Amino acid sequence: MTRHKKQKSSQKISNLTNTILSILKKDRNQSFNYKQIASKLGVNDASSRNQIIKKLHALAAQKEIEEFERGKFKAIVTTEYHSGILDLSVKGSGYVICDDFDEDIFIASNNINRALNGDEVEFYVYKRRKRGKMEGEITQVIKRAKSEYVGVIQVHNNYAFVIPDSNKMYKDIFVPINKINKAEDGDKVLVSLEDWPENADSPNGKVLQVLGKPGEHNTEIHSILAEYGLPYEFPHEVENFADTLDTSITAEEIAKRRDMRNVLTFTIDPKDAKDFDDALSFKILDNGLYEIGIHIADVSHYLQEGTILDDEAYERATSVYLVDRVVPMLPEVLSNNACSLRPHEEKYTFSAVFKINNKAEVKEQWFGRTVTYSDARFAYEEAQAIIESKSNNIPQEVSLTGEPYQTSPEITQAVLKLDELAKIMRKRRMNEGAISFDKVEVKFDLDAEANPVGVFFKTTKDANKLIEEFMLLANKKVAEFIGKQSPKKTFIYRVHDEPDVSKLATLQGVVSKFGYKLNFKDRKTTTASLNNLLQEVVGKKEQNLVDTLTIRTMSKAEYTTHNIGHYGLAFDYYSHFTSPIRRYPDVMAHRLLQLYLDGGKSVNEDIYEDKCNHSSNMENLATKAERDSIKYMQIRFMEDHKNEEFLGVISGVTDWGIYVEIISNKCEGMVSVRDIKDDHYVFDEGQYALVGKTTKNMYQLGDEVIVRVKNTDLVKKHLDFNLIGKKEE
């Protein structure tokens, strides 16, 4: 045997006790002989085999393992094992989130044992605590969270490595040269993990798709979608199927529906909307009540269960709204044409029709399939002009046509009355403990090549809130109608749990730095003080930070068949019924509502709970992709502003640096602690600050600072700043 080979073998054998124990513990229900262990270690020389045999007998004598049958050994299991989800940090260590414990379990990087971020893992917890934290070790991966990664490929002579974009993927992926799928050195690719041999430092993979050259706009947008396993086009057979659907409005179908074509009906949407999935109708009744219809595109009329179109819509579960494009849940023939409630067209709709008095109280309700005709289409800005001027004049600057015009007196009257009722409903909701999140949305002005030429903030005005209140009313009343039936029927609810107490305490700690006080004595005081806080920060430098932190204290809203109510809206029953063009749960709600209106029996709860879980997961991935696309566009925007100085707010503090959010455009970047040269700075967790050892100079959460762009990385979606200094008071 050569000296080199001997050296390698002896390295593998040197830590033999731990290695044997980990092999046996990993497959603790299986027994192994010395040959199987040698094979797992990748050694086959006589000396190594003898050492393995000796070590096995020694460990059995020490009662660390047992000889199950002659020559076959098994782990002695005295440890209690748990399972949970691994949340990895950028530094390589992580935490396992597990229902068996009140706190997350810290896992040091050397105890991760090939688990990756988001994986479901098995682990055990040490008897000791380390720095007050419970600590454990991962014993095996139960289920990988994902098997596909986006990264840049480095091609060598007979192999390649893919360096993943995600900073939470701590290993490069080894790709044999025959599996690079024609990728060239430096290409951005989508790679799938195939296996991770025991004795290999990196997992093995194969290139599924070449996405393009890093930094190019389409490459990066496709990379964002690929990273989360989201599609960016429809399979041909799905497109073809959609194109063959009969989308005509027939007398036969109209006869089965409530005909509301002669009632005043209109849509209010963003000015760039293509899919109008909701319309409002308004009629004054002789008894002094108002008949208000919330009409929703009847997607389930076209989307039949068991078809390839329905399977595709279910898999997608949601439309994805990236900065420069929408990846729709349904092909365009449905989303922008047949199902879109376009002006001056008859459409099949699914409606919630209410008789409402002047106090915005619902006196009667009706649910069912309808046919409607939209008399007009408004942008939010146009409806806002009606509300603000209390007249039917639409000025040129907000008009969709670019010309000033006048609406009909009936439409003006309808918009003003709906606005009045919406304000009463909103006030009532707030009094009952709803929380008012009016978070500023960042939007970009894009040129023809999708380059960001400007940033603006989308704000919510009365016209937006008018639509929101009537959509909330429909969603709530549909959920109540089914939720209160006896015997209980399976339905799709949109639920929102109470906030996490520990997160509220963290929020209290942060906002007290800005002089705000919160009272968490009970639900009423909690929501009142959160609403008060969100109102007080409007227009202040810390608004975005406080808004973001407050949203983070909230539980995630999700879909489920188990109704627990909606905390944020202060509703006991809530569903999603009003956006079936872009959300699959709304399609399911329509189908179930119709089934129960027809007297059908309750459906299988377990099947629908699985569908709810899938929908919640896909919504989560879509949200992450949307965030990444905003981050990417912000970095592209900042590339053109490299030598400018910006005023920002410190939005995060860690031991490796401070995060700064620019006030004028909400772009967030990092100042590395290594780049702050005037002192040696140390992280003070209690004060949310970096503190200079000598000068005691402090950079604290919420401080206003001046920064300049140091580096923009479109591939990693990372922005680095140089710190110029604090804003002079």
UniProtKB/TrEMBL annotation:
Q: Which family is this sequence assigned to?
A: Belongs to the RNR ribonuclease family. RNase R subfamily.
Places the protein is found: Cytoplasm
Q: What's the name of the protein? A: Ribonuclease R
Q: Where is the S1 motif domain?
A: 643-724
Q: What class of enzyme is it?
A: hydrolase
The gene from which this protein is expressed is: rnr
Q: Which reaction does it catalyse?
A: Exonucleolytic cleavage in the 3'- to 5'-direction to yield nucleoside 5'-phosphates
User: Which EC number(s) does the record attach to this protein?
Assistant: 3.1.13.1
Organism, per UniProt? Gaetbulibacter aquiaggeris
